[in-house]
Amino acid sequence: TLLGEGAGEFFDVGQYHYYGPTDEDLVDRLTSAQSRYAGLLGSHGLDRPIWVTETSTSSFPTSGLSGRSSKKRQACDVVRRFVVFTAHGAQRVFWLSFKYEVEHMGDTFGGCDLFDDDMEPKPSWHAMQLVVDKIGHFQEVETILESDVNLYRYGVTPGEDVYVVWARDEGQDEYDLTAYGLFEGQVDITPVGDDVVGTDLSKLQLSYCPVFIEPTYDDAWLE
Predict the structure, then answer these.
(1) Cβ atoms within 10 Å of 73's Cβ, excluding its own
(2) Which pLDDT score is estimated for 169?
(3) pLDDT at 217
(4) Phi-psi region for residue 23, left (φ > 0), alpha (ψ -120 to 50) or beta?
(5) Burial 144-175 (b: 16+ CB within 10 A, else e)
(6) What is the pLDDT of residue 18?
(7) Regions of the chain short of the pLDDT cut 70
(8) Measured distance CA(97)–CA(99) in Å, rounded
(9) Measuring CA to CA, which residue among 153, 158, 72 is closest to residue 111?
(10) What does the DSSP 8-state code read for residue 9?
C-alpha cells in the first residue's frame, strides 16, 4: 500500500527479515523469499539494492524458529543462508545475532547467537569467519547448479574464483565435481563442518554442510 502511494522514492535500500525451518527445503524457501521481495519492489518500478537485515538458525536441538537443529547445522546455515541470498541478488546479509541475553528478547531467538552463554565461540562463529575470509568481499556470484547438488562460483578478485558446494540430502554421498569442467590443477578444499570430505574432486563426499573449493596458486604463479 505504501509503495503504491509513492513511498519508494524515500528509501535507498530495500530490506527484509527471513528465518524459517532449516530442513532439506531451506534453499527453496530462501530463494522464494528473495524472489518475492524483489518482485514486490519491481512491481512498483523500483530498482533498489536488497539487504537481508536479519536471518538466523538456532543451535538448539528443537526450536520453534528453526525446527530441528544443532550447533553443526547452525554453522552450516551461516554459509548456506549467505550464499543463497547473495546468489539470488541480495547485496548484504546480516546474521542475528552475535550475542544477546535471552531475558531481554524472550526465547523466540534462543540459540541463534554465535557465542554460547560462557562467551565461548560456537562453530557458527568459525563458519562466519570462513564466509568473510573466503567470499565476504566478492565482486560477482554465479549459480551453477541448484538441485541435488548446490554449486556456486564467487569471483573474489579478477581471475580468482572460490566455489561453494553442498548436497541437499542430510547424509554424505559421493559426487563427481569434475563433470562440470570448472576446476583445473590443484585445489584447496575447506569443509565448514567436521565431515571428512576427501581431496579427490571426482569422488568428493558431500552432505548438507557446505565446502569451499579454491585454486591452489604456486610461487611461480605469484611471480
Answers:
(1) 25
(2) 84
(3) 64
(4) beta
(5) eebeebbbbbbebeeeebbbbbbbbeeebeeb
(6) 96
(7) 101-106, 217-223
(8) 6
(9) 72
(10) G
